[in-house]
Design a protein that fits this description.
The chain has 348 residues and is α/β, with parallel strands linked by helices. The protein has ten helices and 14 strands. Bound molecules: nicotinamide-adenine-dinucleotide (NAD). Nicotinamide-adenine-dinucleotide binds next to helix 1.
Length: 348
């Protein structure tokens, strides 16, 4: 029996608590302690989950012998936390978007790599079996050469005026639909095709928020000729849960996929994959991989199991700091493109 891997959690809000319940239940892992400034949260966790707590991450990093940490704080706090974690030479899983600019992203990517530390970011769609399966089909050439794509994300995150309260209401804290939601839609594009070379026609608009965008639309281009569009709306009450939709049109067919299923239209039948000419329907139950338990979707368990396997066995990391830094470069292009279009509109 190997010694349990000891993890600490920094930030125990919605995602910190999700990851706590998963990590603590994985074989050979124990969550040593959790740090969060909220007294309510640390009192509840101490009382009902019987886990050690700290009111700040410095106390946790000083007071515990750890192998790794899960960083689940609002992203504006992450640079100072990641510097401190690096100083302690700990492996790290960090929630997306990880940091708020590409320069910080690149700095942490190279510092953690040079220190030989596992660095993983929580772009969880990369562990969803529908997305991993269909990505492989595209790579295998099932729909021929990809020509156009469409990446969409919808959620009911901000469906009324909630004023300026909370970190999601300002870009400085990592809020807004670009950092929070579009980052997932960009990551899905990057997961299928790598980072796009440029963006154009970006429009960021408000529905309820005062300081940040609620709707994001843009076009994305590759030097190879591949191009696509992205549409993200976090004020869409017609969706109960965050939902990603991805479509690829290729020379030999088309695929439409979300977290639960895929529709594939083929010009010709494909025997290897058991798919017929015309429309085919795949469900997540047709392709799902095995995880020991289900919390909020197989993908959340699978991504932490991979983090542990990367620490223990050197399993390659599916979404590194460098991958997330590339997404931040696209995010910076979106903000710059939207600002340039607004300036041109005002000058006209
Ligand atoms: N991958 C996903 O599906 C997904 C979903 C939701 C959120 N997220 C990401 O997870 C991160 C956290 O989001 P959330 O929804 O859990 O937010 P949240 O507001 O629910 O929780 C954040 C927690 O961090 C704590 N905190 C603040 N400053 C801290 C500090 N200096 N040290 C320790 N704790 C501190 C807060 O008290 C709070 O409990 C964000 O980056 C967000 O984008 C990812």
């Amino acid at each position: 029996m190997t010694t349990p891997l000891k993890l600490g959690i920094i930030g125990a809000g919605r995602m910190g608590i999700t990851h706590f319940s998963i990590a603590n239940a994985l074989d050979g892992v124990s969550v040593a302690s959790v740090a969060d400034p909220s007294k309510l949260i640390t009192t509840m966790l101490g009382k009902y989950a019987k886990v050690g707590t700290y009111k700040d991450y410095k106390g946790l990093l000083k007071g515990e012998e750890l192998d790794g940490v899960l960083v689940c704080t609002p992203p504006a706090f992450n640079p100072e936390i990641l510097d401190a974690v690096l100083e302690r030479r700990l492996h790290v899983f960090c929630e997306k978007p990880f940091v708020l600019n590409a320069a910080d992203g690149a700095r942490f990517a190279s510092a953690y790599d040079q220190a030989g530390l596992v660095n993983q970011v929580g772009y969880v769609n990369r562990w969803n079996d529908m997305f991993t399966h269909t990505r492989q089909l595209v790579e295998d050439g099932l729909i021929g050469a990809p020509l156009r794509f469409r990446s969409e994300m919808f959620s009911p995150t901000i469906i009324r005026d909630v004023g300026d309260a909370g970190w999601r209401a300002s870009h400085a804290n990592g809020g807004g639909a670009v950092f929070e939601m579009a980052s997932h839609a960009i990551d899905l594009i990057a997961y299928f095709f790598g980072a796009p070379d440029r963006v154009g026609g970006t429009s960021l608009s408000k529905v309820y928020s005062k300081q940040v965008e609620d709707i994001v639309s843009t076009s994305l281009f590759y030097d190879s000729g591949l191009a696509g569009t992205m549409y993200v709306n976090w004020s869409d009450a017609s969706f109960r849960k965050p939902t990603n939709k991805f479509e690829v049109f290729g020379s030999e067919g088309k695929l439409q996929v979300d977290q639960h299923g895929a529709k594939i239209h083929l010009k010709e039948a494909n025997e290897k994959h058991g798919l017929k000419e015309g429309w085919n329907q795949l469900y997540i139950t047709d392709v799902h991989s095995s995880v020991p338990f289900y919390v909020r979707g197989i993908e959340y368990t699978a991504q932490l199991a991979d983090f542990v396997a990367s620490i223990r066995e050197g399993k390659p990391v599916r979404c590194t700091f460098a991958d997330a830094a590339a997404n931040l470069r696209v995010i910076e292009q979106l903000f710059a493109d939207d600002a340039a279009i607004r300036r041109a509109g005002a000058a006209a």
